């Protein structure tokens, strides 16, 4: 038995021709290439900006200046800000959330105790597959019913 051709595989419910699909996929390829080119330009501009920013900061620090005004171009100001990393270990998380609950109350506890959307959806997908293999339906307390959407995967042929 021979391999099926593209035409053999193409079965439609409506009146869509192979030429229409080829044209649509061609336009998708062109749009993806323009998007990639634009991203490369944006990445280069971000790199240039970061380098220029670092140079200005270095010059201001060297000159002992906190603020500088370049007439017609702008005002730059150095500020010291503090930043902390999110708790990583179970012990750090437990201590942090205990502190929040004790010092800021229940509302703050639930506001700061959140999960990243990407991580949540990854967990949901993994558990759905796991439960599905056992013939069970996944139900996670506290989560609303999932909404379905269609996503197109597009790679170079």
Any overview of this molecule?
The protein has 157 residues and is mostly helical. It has helices at residues 6-9, 18-63, 90-104, 106-112, 117-133; strands spanning 67-70, 74-77. The chain has two domains: 17-83; 84-138, no CATH class. It is built from five helices and two strands; from the N terminus they run ααββααα. It has a two-stranded antiparallel ribbon. Helix 3 (90-104) runs antiparallel to helix 4.
* Number of separate domains: 2
Mean of residue pLDDT? 87
User: Distance between termini?
Assistant: 25 Å
Largest sheet, in brief, is: 2 strands, antiparallel
**Number of DSSP strand runs:** 2
Principal-axis shape: flat
SS-based structural class? mainly alpha
Question: What is shown here, in short?
Answer:
The chain is mainly alpha-helical. Helices cover 57% and strands 5% of the residues.
Key phrases:
2 domains; 157 residues; 5 helices; flat; 5% strand
Layout of strands and helices, then pairs:
Blueprint: H1 6-9, H2 18-63, E1 67-70, E2 74-77, H3 90-104, H4 106-112, H5 117-133
Antiparallel strand pairs: 1-2
